[in-house]
Specification:
about 575 residues; mainly beta; globular
């Protein structure tokens, strides 16, 4: 029997409520809607069995299946909630405030036992950044950063500090996922000309630098993002500075580093200059994808040797999302980009669909690996708030738009334990839907009527790079490809992807419920002059102009043209004038 579809929790000015997952999309009647605008935060447990929220008066914890109220806590100012991995502990955080006379404030970070409702410990945590304690997956270890020192607790006993890791000015850390033994990645920012560093330790062996499993030092780092893979064998470190001193980037400067628990480390070489927008591990822990470079950005998959495996080319992307099963990857462009989603079959590197999710501020995979939610939320955008649930093949299965006087603040899928939904075979044809997709299509460049029958002249603002497979393509030997073979391979990949894109667009257009089905398509007839000689001249002129366009494209890529080829390009204006005169006479 298939597991039930995950719920979707929705929070906004209309209150807090839950929506049944696909294929129903109706409001869940088991969970009683929390009306009003005072709900500030909610959280699911990792397995989705518990749900907690603060309604501006108290924190409530319920069993999701039965909606039975487990506990209520009188903490009306709570703005952050998080469950421990097994759901045994709920951590809550309220903004820290000192007394009017300057005295120290009361503890604002509490950890509660979910079974008994007892407060296990209260701490003072002044900053909201990294406010929550960090657990190992089995909850045998929990860590907090206290005054540049990591404090470790065991078995949720917060009254006794079991171990400490003291490094000068520890700024950030991340516990590894998975089974024991637990590992921890620690970031120490550089100072006084010394480089920054990230070190990997295995708990509880913290005896100095020699005890580290691996260490990587680097400059140009004001802050880092630490990304463990699911098997806890390696960490990606995105190091960034607030300001690019060369003035090349508004976003500061970023570098990407790879550190493995076996001691190996490397700088991931990215072939295009510019910011690193996003990086993500495949859930299989064997590869990772990076989106980087000045727009249009590049996206590349790397293996554990930091060698490129597949290059998706360039496009309007700044985010990457693997499905929970790791079999599908979405490249997205949000924020100041158009909201284009490129959905790829990771195993075969085939494009599945190219839906458009305009004005989206949020994206998340459903745990079933089949569905996606995109949302436009306030305060990021205060107009057009609402959410859509998609199938990865590009069809919109459900759409909700809040009234004009209301706001949407947050949507979140109910989590499920790993393995609840196994990977299914990838589909390429758009799934039927009764909901029309009203997303606007990319607008074509305007061309005056007099130029519409002429060859399109090249006026690219950016050089578009097609996708290409970076794995060695040699047959029966390990010799590298020649320049000619590599060039032909790139052409083949570009043609292949162009066909995939066209197929993806057609699949979306002919989806059931699409208005395109009700349209009659006609092919414009070819206009002739009635004089075979004139028609022949027009055909030859168009052929010459097409050849000139190809030469101009070659020159744009840096190829050195011959003298006779340059002379052909110089004749373009005269050929265009001659073609115009002939066509005006038709």
């Amino acid at each position: 029997m298939a597991p039930p579809s995950p719920l979707l929790a929705v929070r906004g000015s209309e209150g807090l409520y839950m929506v049944n997952g696909p294929p129903h999309f109706t409001e869940n009647t088991t969970f009683q809607r929390e009306s009003g605008r005072k709900c500030k935060v909610f959280a699911f447990s990792k397995d989705g069995s518990f749900f907690a929220w603060c309604n501006g008066e108290q924190i409530n914890i319920v069993n999701v299946t039965s909606n039975r109220l487990l506990h209520s806590f009188d903490l009306p100012k709570t703005v952050c909630l998080e469950f421990s991995p097994k759901g045994n502990v709920l951590a809550t955080w309220q903004p820290y405030a000192t007394g009017k006379d300057g005295t120290a404030g009361v503890p604002n970070l509490q950890v509660f036992d979910v079974k008994t409702g007892n407060c296990l410990k209260s701490f003072i945590q002044k900053k909201t950044q990294n406010w929550c304690p960090c657990w190992s997956d089995d909850e045998s270890i929990c860590a907090r950063n206290v005054n540049n020192e990591l404090h470790f607790f065991e078995n949720n006993d917060f009254n006794t500090i079991a171990n400490k890791l003291h490094l000068q000015k520890v700024s950030d850390f991340a516990m590894s996922p998975g089974d024991q033994p637990s590992k921890v990645a620690v970031y120490v920012p550089g100072s006084k000309g010394a480089p920054s560093s990230v070190r990997l330790y295995q708990y509880p062996v913290f005896g100095g630098l020699q005890a580290a499993l691996a260490s990587k030092s680097f400059f140009k780092a004001d802050k880092v993002m630490l990304l463990w893979n699911s098997k806890a064998t390696a960490v990606l470190v995105i190091a960034s500075t607030e300001v690019d001193k060369t003035g090349a980037s508004y976003y500061g400067e970023q570098t990407l580093h790879y550190i493995a628990t076996n001691g190996e480390s490397a700088v991931v070489q990215l072939p295009k200059n510019g910011p690193i927008y996003d990086a993500a591990w495949n859930p299989n822990s064997m590869e990772f994808c990076v989106v980087y470079g000045f727009m249009p950005a590049k996206a590349t998959i790397f293996n554990l040797k930091c060698d490129p495996v597949f290059d998706f080319g360039t496009g309007p992307h700044n985010a990457v999302y693997y499905s929970p099963q790791g079999h599908i990857l979405v490249l997205a462009g949000f924020g100041n980009l158009s909201g284009q989603l490129d959905v790829w079959d990771v195993k075969n590197y085939k494009l599945i669909s190219k839906p458009q999710a305009s004005d989206s501020t949020y994206f998340a995979w459903c745990p079933d690996g089949e569905h996606i939610v995109t949302a436009t939320c306030s305060p990021r955008l205060r107009v057009g708030n609402g959410y859509k649930i998609w199938h990865y093949t590009g069809s919109v299965l459900y759409k909700y738009e809040v009234p004009s006087n209301a706001e949407l603040w947050q949507v979140t899928w109910q989590p499920c334990l790993e393995g609840t939904f196994p990977a299914r075979a990838v589909k390429y044809n758009t799934v039927p839907s009764k909901v029309p997709n009203d997303e606007p299509k990319a607008a074509q460049a305007y061309r005056p009527p007099a130029l519409r029958d002429r060859p399109v002249t090249s006026s690219k603002l950016h050089e578009i790079e097609p996708p290409q497979n970076m794995r060695p393509q040699s047959k029966g030997n390990d010799k590298p490809l020649s320049k000619t073979a590599l060039k032909n391979q790139r052409k083949h990949e570009a043609k292949k992807v162009a066909k995939q894109e066209a197929r993806a667009e057609v699949n979306q257009e002919i989806a059931p419920g699409s208005p395109v089905l009700n349209t009659v398509h006609t092919v414009a007839p070819t206009i002739t002059s009635g004089d075979p000689e004139v028609d022949k001249k027009i055909k030859n002129l168009k052929k010459k102009l097409k050849a000139i366009e190809q030469l101009k494209d070659q020159a744009a890529t840096g190829k050195q043209l011959e003298k006779n080829q340059l002379e052909k390009i110089q004749k373009e204006a005269a050929l265009l004038k001659e073609l115009e005169d002939l066509e005006l006479g038709i």
